[in-house]
Amino acid sequence: MRQVGDMICRGFKRVALLGAAAAIAATALMAPAQAASRIKDIADFEGIRENQLIGYGLVVGLNGTGDSLNNSPFTQQSLQAMLERLGVNTRNIDLNTNTVAAVMVTANLPPFSTQGTRIDVNVSALGDSDSLQGGTLLVTPLVGADGEVYAIAQGSIAIGGFSAQADAASVVRGVPTAGRIANGGLVERELDFKLASLTTLRLALRNPDLTTARRVALSVNELIGMPTAEPLDPATVRIDLPQQYDGNIVDLLTDIEQLIVEPDLAARIVIDENSGIIVMGQDVKVSMVAVAQGNLTVTIAESPQVSQPLPFANGQTAVVPRSDVSVDEDGSKLAIVPQTVTLKQLVDGLNALGIGPRDMISILQAIKAAGALQADIEVL
Question: On the CB side of 70, how many CA atoms lie within 13 Å of its CA?
Fold first, then answer.
């Protein structure tokens, strides 16, 4: 009986494993070809965003790598103004110090930040300072686009590079004139934005598209069970607050941002001619075309020779120029790029020509000019 029971248990395990494998295979077959994304990854709620802050300050305590006051008059003026506020009069004194540097301080104010919240700040040299290593930023007000002070920054700077210099050599790694102060900013002013009092929400798509906006609206309406979402344009979807979420808009936002939507983008090819980078979208298609590509190389080699006169002759030594000019045309045969259905077939067809990325950029632009490329080309 014990052996029979073990055989039955093993049989059940095999059936369970076969069932799990079948379920995984069925799930893989039913999976969509394109990757779907959450709404929170493709759209932003209007009003819930960061705000950029900026300020001007002084960094002190540098080991001889600060601004030269003769070449940076704004550093000298700022230093004198700061000392006067502290009760030290330096107007008629010729300051000569290289331990101070003028810097620009930037930060991002997160949404719904309250007074006393700490934020990170970035510090960048403004004058001719060589390095900010070991420096300390003095109290610097950070203002927004409206000119109001929203945060105060101060603290020791941590840089990601260093510089070392001797009499005959110098080494610089990274950027020693820019650094970061973790939790160096203190929020002093809150943004006046009342999320709970809103009756209408607006979703802003990060990649505007009419089809994506409609799919987002349909997904939200299916969740709520009534037509409350409406696409206004390719980048905006308006959502009216339904009655079941009245007074609790946070629950509505949480439910909406977790919805899965398949974004749709226009066929586009992005080209960076400086680096030779080509990026193609999934829906890029090309009609059947014939492409020939060849390079014309002209080589000129100079090999001058010296003409020496015979002994006891009245001639002079002269240099006789000799030039060797050769022309080499490396032309490939006319190749057919078939009408493609997938991006892989298009790439394989272009790679079959045996050309590099920079020549492929010219070929793609020529195919677009011929009207055989169904995609937009964006040159960076």
Answer: 1
